[in-house]
Write a structure and sequence with these properties.
- By secondary structure, the chain is an alpha/beta fold.
- Helix content is 28%, strand content 17%.
- It starts with a strand and ends with a helix.
- The structure holds ligand MGD (2 copies) and molybdenum atom (MO).
- It comes from Streptomyces roseolilacinus.
């Protein structure tokens, strides 16, 4: 192993290997990146934080010199990453100091956004809110937030929206991201809450990844798997993904199905496992309901039938089933290839079923990770800043609503619970129809990330809709706003957040925000004060004033609920590693795995919802739930395969899917401002298979156009080993200019993937379908020897030919140190 060396982490995104054997601890490897010219001795302070560009929760320390961030290093003693960092975290912080940060509020005047002071901006927001409350009532106001703020901020927003304004229209972009994770956990276990732990990677003998490009989207856990693959008794991987991801290339069995056929494939896998009687009947009898229904339903899905639907060889399905069925400790992960499709919840639930019928839960190595995507999406869900009530409370359970009202000291009637909290796609519909008149958007860029962008732009541009945007930059969305509020971000504010395996981290403030930018918490607190929200005794509704007091308030709200934070404090979170909830008196050091002792939170009196019909999304009632599941066991729910809503036709002969690359985060507001990351993937591209390219006479680097019934985009072609009939476009590229020369009016007119995607969602989770559309492909202009601006290091690797390798050069060198011994920042800070 060549740790203790410098590695170009653009050329080698995963760094060097530290192999380890099954059931052994994962060795530490501390990754450090300091900007050019800064030596370790120049660092005046290391400030504890965790990464904010994916849901892994990699712990890191921010290097500060002369009041500036000058680098980062991983925290060796943290349970999540043991010191490692991915490329986005090593380089992405540079965006904080970008010269084009918003430093003052803006308001629209005579059609243009002009700078103003905070009073002017907030007074406009307050005047609009008051006017709408008087004339139209709380339903005229909507809040669309993020999976990237901090817990304290979501909780404050949830209180002011639900009990202050009294609106039901509060959701996060988590709707686009992890609403299926939450829904699948509710459907199977009665409540949100990740059963598994990342440590399961150390113990599993089979790891199955469903629609999850772990290598690029959580690169540190992929390093962990790579290290195990080089150690004793390595795990075997099953990968279900239509693209040749790094995960697919390392897999023992790779299934590359047609888009939108996950349920058929999973039903066939379950069919084989039940047929061969690899069922843990004791576990099923003790802890579940619904097995017979599943056994009956999947009888109709022999591998041959699924092979026809999914277009994968039946023999491969049987091999995968053999691995899954004989695993001694099975770990499964699920992400957007499943969640962003028309049967999202139905498919995700089948993965839960696989674990339930095999009794693969609650033991080291046996776990399910219904993954999160965004760094703080878990907190959006817990705090009820998405379509749920805070603390995983059930809006249909009047005891839960009363309990929440007690915590907030308000009348239960104040908290809307006449209908399910409004989901984001519906909020945009209400804004389109005119019933929502004010939309406050924080920490998300819907003018690039929502489906069918032409429609989104026209909704946001309406005169009758008052749009508030709270962001770091003048994004595509901010440009359409009436008021723009400049926010402080990670590194400039303190707060906590929770990763995909329930690990809570504290991220401390390292430097001052630029200009007049303020932490989101301060903005929400300021609004609550100006609106003078009151509790039922006339006291202030929001009683906290800073991150730590907000955290203490949240702890009271979480008490006794599954996501119990009562055993955590800021001090405790400064003690070394992040800590997994529930953390309370019974579990003062946190809880590594849920459901070690059967199913705990599905009881009708405790559960977060009463379940839904997976095909229609219709909510079940408490009466139905009690009769199905009186004792609160895990629920095995079967589902039939239904074809995707949009299938290829003569005019649109391809399937089109969209997603990510390892170097960029979403709409690139941060990663495009980090030179190493931007250079690695500077512009959009289109992936197609070699046979398809040949049939159309297309080659690497040709400028092509992808068209769907919604719209079109242009990008250069990358020919890869993707399945035939499938196109892939990364969704990172909006229409502002990053210096790469492709602004609107540049040489490529439309390049955002979401110009082409459809307004449609999974019936149960309401998550939009970014992963299935029918599309046409045509040549615009020959590449004449150019190559696509697509990385060669990962899923977009060229099938063949002379494409220059993606490298970072001297500015991308990162130090890896093998010995995890170093002074803790707490010591150094003193
Ligand atoms: N580098 C990077 N990392 C990130 C992010 C980022 O923007 N960049 N974003 C973070 C966030 S918010 C999220 S949600 C996660 C997302 O993380 P992932 O879900 O891993 O990422 P995606 O690229 O959206 O999609 C994963 C895979 O789904 C496959 N897929 C497409 N259609 C289907 C299908 O019908 N069936 C199956 N089985 N697979 C299909 C695609 O080929 C793709 O490889 O990443 C997080 N981490
Ligand atoms: N076609 C297609 N579309 C997709 C997806 C896909 O796979 N394909 N994936 C979907 C998924 S999973 C996701 S998560 C979404 C992501 O979509 P978005 O959330 O819209 O993408 P981001 O670029 O992360 O936008 C976050 C915004 O918040 C700002 N920001 C960052 N930190 C802070 C902060 O501390 N405070 C404030 N106020 N602002 C901050 C950033 O500058 C940025 O403008 O995209 C979805 N859209
Ligand atoms: Mo996401």
């Amino acid at each position: 192993m060549d740790v203790d060396a410098s590695v170009d982490r653009i050329a080698q995104p995963w760094g060097s290997r530290t192999p380890y054997g099954r059931h052994e601890p994962w060795p530490a490897r501390v990754d450090t990146y300091l900007e050019a010219g800064v030596e370790p001795d120049d660092v005046q302070q290391w400030v504890q934080a965790a990464s904010i560009l994916h849901s892994d929760g990699d712990a890191m320390d921010i290097a500060v010199a002369d009041g500036r961030i000058v680098g980062v290093r991983g925290r060796a003693q943290d349970r999540v990453n043991h010191g490692r960092l991915g490329p986005k975290d090593l380089f992405g912080w540079q965006a904080n100091a970008s010269a084009d940060r918003l430093t003052r509020p803006l308001v629209r005047q005579d059609g243009r956004l002009v700078e103003c002071d905070w009073d002017t901006a907030m007074n406009r927001v307050v005047a609009c809110s008051r006017g709408l409350l008087d004339e139209h009532g709380p339903g005229a106001i909507g809040f669309y937030t993020s999976g990237q703020l901090f817990l304290e901020e979501y909780y404050t927003l949830a209180v002011l929206a639900r009990a202050g304004i009294g609106t039901n229209h509060l959701d996060g972009n988590t709707r686009l991201c992890t609403s299926t994770a939450a829904e699948a956990l509710k459907e199977s276990f009665g409540c949100d809450g990740q059963p598994g732990s990342y440590d399961d990677i150390d113990h599993a003998d089979v790891i199955a990844l469903f629609g999850h490009n772990l290598a690029e989207t959580q690169p540190v856990q992929w390093m962990r798997i790579l290290d195990r693959l080089e150690g004793a008794d390595p795990p075997r991987l099953v990968c279900v993904d239509p693209r040749p991801t790094r995960v697919a290339r390392e897999a023992t069995v790779h299934l590359a199905p047609r888009l939108g056929t996950n349920v058929a494939l999973l039903n066939a896998l379950l069919h084989e496992i039940i047929r061969a009687d690899r069922v843990d009947h004791d576990y099923v009898a003790a802890h579940t309901v619904g097995f017979d229904e599943l056994a009956f339903r999947v009888k109709e899905y022999p591998p041959k039938r699924a092979a026809d639907i999914c277009d994968v060889p039946a023999a491969r399905i049987e091999e995968a089933a053999e691995l899954l069925g004989t695993a001694d400790r099975l770990l499964s992960t699920v992400l957007q290839g499943v969640y962003q499709s028309h049967q999202a919840t139905a498919a995700a639930v089948q993965v839960n079923n696989l674990h339930l019928i095999r009794g693969m839960l609650g033991r080291p190595g046996a776990g399910v990770l219904q993954m999160n995507g965004q760094p703080t999406a878990q907190n959006t869900r817990e705090c009820g800043a998405n379509g749920d009530l805070p603390g995983f409370r059930n809006w249909q359970n009047s005891e839960h609503v009363a309990d929440l009202a007690r915590v907030w000291n308000v009348d239960p009637k104040t908290i809307p619970h006449y209908a399910p909290p409004t989901h984001a796609m519906q909020m945009f519909r209400y804004a389109e129809q005119g019933s929502i008149r004010m939309l406050w958007i924080s920490g998300t860029n819907p003018a690039v990330s929502l489906p069918e962008l032409a429609r989104i732009r026209s909704i946001l541009a309406q005169d009758r809709l008052f749009v508030v945007v709270q962001d770091l930059f003048l994004t595509e969305t901010a440009q359409l706003a009436d008021v723009v509020l400049p926010a402080a971000t990670w590194g400039e504010k303190a707060g906590t957040f929770t990763n995909a395996d329930r690990t809570v981290h504290l991220s401390d403030k390292a430097v001052e925000p630029p200009g007049e930018a303020k932490p989101d918490l301060d903005i929400f607190l300021d609004y609550a004060a100006r609106m003078d929200f009151r509790d039922k005794d006339g006291g202030p509704l929001v009683t906290w004033h800073d991150p730590e007091s907000a955290f203490e308030a949240w702890k009271r709200c979480s008490a006794g609920r599954p996501c119990d934070y009562t055993g955590l404090t800021y001090d405790k979170l400064r003690g070394g590693s992040g800590i997994q909830w529930p953390c309370n008196e019974q579990a003062p050091d946190g809880t590594e795995r849920l459901y070690t002792d059967g199913i705990s939170w599905a009881h009708p009196d405790i559960c977060e919802n009463y379940g839904k019909d997976l095909a229609t999304g219709a909510a079940d009632s408490v009466v139905e739930y009690r009769s199905l599941n009186p004792d609160g066991k895990a629920m095995i729910k079967a589902a039939d395969y239904l074809p995707p809503h949009e299938e290829p036709t003569d005019a649109y002969p391809f399937q089109l899917t969209t997603g990510r690359t390892v170097y960029h985060f979403h709409t690139r507001t941060k990663t495009a401002r980090a030179p190493q990351l931007n250079a690695a993937a500077p512009d959009v591209w289109v992936e197609a298979s070699a046979p398809d390219a040949a049939a159309l006479g297309l080659g690497e680097g040709d400028l092509v156009e992808v068209t769907t019934p919604r719209g079109a985009l242009r990008g250069r072609l990358r020919v890869t080993d993707i399945r035939t009939g499938l196109l892939f476009v990364p969704f990172h590229y909006g229409y502002w200019d990053t210096g790469a020369g492709h602004a609107p009016g540049g040489d490529i007119p439309g390049r955002a993937a979401n110009e082409t995607t459809v307004t449609d969602w999974d019936p149960a989770s309401k998550q939009p379908l970014f992963k299935t559309a029918a599309a046409a492909l045509r040549l615009v202009e020959r590449g004449d020897g150019r190559s696509a601006p697509a990385p060669t290091t990962a899923a977009s690797a060229p099938a063949s030919g002379a494409v220059p390798a993606t490298t970072g050069g001297p500015s991308a060198l990162v130090t890896q140190s093998a010995d995890g011994t170093w002074d803790s920042p707490e010591e150094e800070n003193r």
